[in-house]
Amino acid sequence: MDLTGDKPSAPRSSPVYVHNPHLDSLKDDVLYHFSLGTRTHNLPAMFGDVKFVCVGGSPWRIKSFTEYIAAELAIEEPNSGYANICAGTDRYTMYKVGPVLSVSHGMGIPSIAIMLHELIKLLHHAHCTDVTVIRIGTSGGIGLEPGTVVVTKQSVDATFLPRLEQVILGKTVVRNTDLDQGLAEELLQCSKELSQFETVIGNTMCTLDFYEGQARLDGALCSYTEKDKQDYLIKAKEAGVCNIEMESSVFAAMCKLSGLRGKKTQHEYLIKKYSNPFEFLTSLFLFGKRLLFV
Ligand SMILES: O=P(O)(O)O[C@H]1O[C@H](CO)[C@@H](O)[C@H]1O
Ligand SMILES: O=c1cc[nH]c(=O)[nH]1
């Protein structure tokens, strides 16, 4: 309710927050790894209508997702050769179709963290509101049938704790890694209605490495036995871990701090194509198997 009267207040739109007072004094905020900037590009004109951001490790997956979602939204002819907005750099790729921005992030926490800093600033400078970000990635399941989709509830570290530790100015800062529960439930509901993929909600373990960090036996270095590996994976399962990947903790922490969460959107494209944005999430679900949504 409106605090000043008894009329119901209109739903407020949620901006994308940056928590950096130094940005205000920059004449030009350069998004180095996107090859974009506030002086060189009209970010509100280019990105102001973005409501969904879909991210994933591989540039190829992001291009293919863009073609898929363009056909789903019937915005442009599929396979018409979408332009990579970040063509001025070979660090990340970015495509936009209507309200959906898709960005690749490479492998691991440092790579996705750099991308997220620039993405959050981009959405902030573009004055975007009510943005939902979804990571579409691969992961290794623990005790799940191959092909199962895991919707992450919470990202945990390699000791199964829901936290991201980062050293800033020589001090360890701990950040929360909860994800939006409403969005997770919506995605699960989409999957139930589709009935095409086995889908679970659970915790995702985020590791610093693909080999030793994930108890694999096929890296160049390995100092443990098959039994040690199995014991660790059993402990992970007992702690509620469903799958393992390498970006979810910083993804969760940075989205939470920036106000990027699962929210309903009223964007015109989505209304035109779908009776509600929930159906957009269902379309997302149809994009391939063995994906990780966080
Ligand atoms: O499928 P993507 O998004 O690349 O993510 C997963 O795949 C990579 C490892 O092969 C890691 O980055 C992991 O998180
Ligand atoms: O990090 C990852 C990604 C995919 N598959 C795995 O086993 N681990």
Automatic annotation (TrEMBL):
EC number(s) on file: 2.4.2.3
Tree of life domain: Eukaryota
Any one cellular-component term (Gene Ontology): cytosol
Keywords: Glycosyltransferase, Transferase
Class of enzymatic activity (EC top level): transferase
UniProt-recorded Gene Ontology molecular function terms: uridine phosphorylase activity
Pathway(s) annotated for this protein in UniProt: Pyrimidine metabolism; UMP biosynthesis via salvage pathway; uracil from uridine (phosphorylase route): step 1/1
Domain called Nucleoside phosphorylase: residue spans: 51-260
Keyword Transferase tagged: yes
Residues that coordinate or bind phosphate: 91, 135-138
UniProt-annotated binding residues for substrate: 214, 216
CDD domains associated with the record: UP_hUPP-like
Catalytic activity, as annotated: uridine + phosphate = alpha-D-ribose 1-phosphate + uracil
Keyword Glycosyltransferase among UniProt keywords: yes
InterPro entries according to UniProt: Nucleoside_phosphorylase_CS, Nucleoside_phosphorylase_d, Nucleoside_phosphorylase_sf, Uridine_phosphorylase_euk
One biological process term in Gene Ontology: nucleotide catabolic process
Family label: Belongs to the PNP/UDP phosphorylase family.
PANTHER family listed in its UniProt record: URIDINE PHOSPHORYLASE, URIDINE PHOSPHORYLASE 1
NCBIfam families for the chain: euk_UDPppase
Biological function: Catalyzes the reversible phosphorylytic cleavage of uridine to uracil and ribose-1-phosphate which can then be utilized as carbon and energy sources or in the rescue of pyrimidine bases for nucleotide synthesis. Shows broad substrate specificity and can also accept deoxyuridine and other analogous compounds.
Name recorded for this polypeptide: Uridine phosphorylase
Organism (species): Nothobranchius furzeri
